[in-house]
Amino acid sequence: MVGTNRLAWLKSGLLWRTFFMLAFLITVSMVAWVASFRIVERGPRAQALAAQIISIVTITRAALTHSAPDLRRELLFDLASNEGIRIYPLEDTDQIDPPVDDAIMPDLEKEVRSKLGNQTRFSSKVNEIGGFWVSFKIDGDEYWLVLDRERVERGSGVQWLQWASVALILSLLGAMFISTLINQPLSRLTAATRAVAKGLQPEPLPETGPTEIEEANRSFNQMVSDLQRIESDRAIILAGISHDLRTPLARMLLEVEMANLTDDARSGMQSDLAQMDGIIGQFLHYAKPTDTSSFENINLSELIENVVQTAERQADIRIQAQIAPDIYVSGNETELRRVLNNVIENSRRYGKQDGADCVDIDISVQARQDRALVTLADHGPGIPEGEIDRLLRPFTRLDVARGQANGSGLGLAIVSRIVKQHGGKLRVSNREGGGLSSQIELQLS
């Protein structure tokens, strides 16, 4: 299961997908290049080595042939010490090992024998002495000419591996740099999109770079600007409506109308006005954007204790609270207080058990790793599982499942909106044993 998750992570990340694709292509290219180079250079290298060996044998044979017999020992000593060339007589009792199995060896032997004769023999070791051995004749006598193996053989496999490793590491670093360069604009766009989804205002994206990235960033910045303008216009319109309904003149006209009504009608209208005033207030809360610049370090434990004390003053609410001390989060205290009050009010309206005079609410606050978890649960009827997601949408009320109380359908929508603007998560689910549970998750500060 863990391996599957890791593979899914690698497949989902554009940076790593690009890196591994480039790394694979670079590795395949290097292998193909090395193989091609070894094939192409085999013939020229065999000819060059053959020419070198033929030249050494020819010069050595000429020097030995034309030197005085009493000076040949000194000549052989000079060849061995200065040129790394050793001469041994070829004996029938010599223990001869075959030459090294090298790709260029057949071509090398063919070239040398074409000049020195088909009787020329080669060996990698004679009488347990290693080197590159080639035979030649002087006046009918056969001799061995021995060269150091390094003069004939190409670089060792270890050297090739070292150079290939260095080249591969540099290539992979280049692949990582290119992948990062390609992925950086998309990462910025993704981060900005997530900020917008949480209700935050992202920094404008740089309108520079390749044409496609420049146009995408410009379009995104324009979209964010349009959303902010629409948000502002909506707040102004709703504020205007609220202001019109709350002006002294409107109040006075309503009072005049109410003066002509019976006591029962007047009481009913007052109730309707109070409900309307509450709904308008919820409209304004939902339309009002959260200013992240107002965020501060808040003692969430003390804030919830204060909210619980205030809520318990209502006769129809009983609260069982388990609050861990000194849990701090970053946010707007007024907005977080509104979140808690809205959830408690939702439970007060819809979370009473059948026939009960008051609602029982369980509240727990705890810190888990780097997150603060706030859980509020009632013991009411709950809601159908398929309706939970719809419950968080604006203007949604599920009266059939949660009672017949009046409202605008914005209570939990406001909660969800504010929690997202604080970079948190809201999870709503049915409580085991009956009732609705709301869990709020916020980042610890």
From TrEMBL:
UniProt domain HAMP: residue ranges: 180-232
The entry's keywords: ATP-binding, Cell inner membrane, Cell membrane, Kinase, Membrane, Nucleotide-binding, Phosphoprotein, Transferase, Transmembrane, Transmembrane helix, Two-component regulatory system
Membrane topology qualifier: Multi-pass membrane protein
InterPro entries: 2C_sensor_his_kinase, HAMP_dom, HATPase_C_sf, HATPase_dom, His_kinase_dom, HisK_dim/P_dom, HisK_dim/P_sf, RisS_PPD
Cellular location(s): Cell inner membrane
Protein known as: histidine kinase
Matches recorded under SUPFAM superfamilies: ATPase domain of HSP90 chaperone/DNA topoisomerase II/histidine kinase (SSF55874), Homodimeric domain of signal transducing histidine kinase (SSF47384)
Domain Histidine kinase: 240-445
EC numbers for this chain: 2.7.13.3
PROSITE patterns: HAMP, HIS_KIN
Residue stretches spanning the membrane: 14-35, 160-182
Pfam family for this entry, one: RisS_PPD
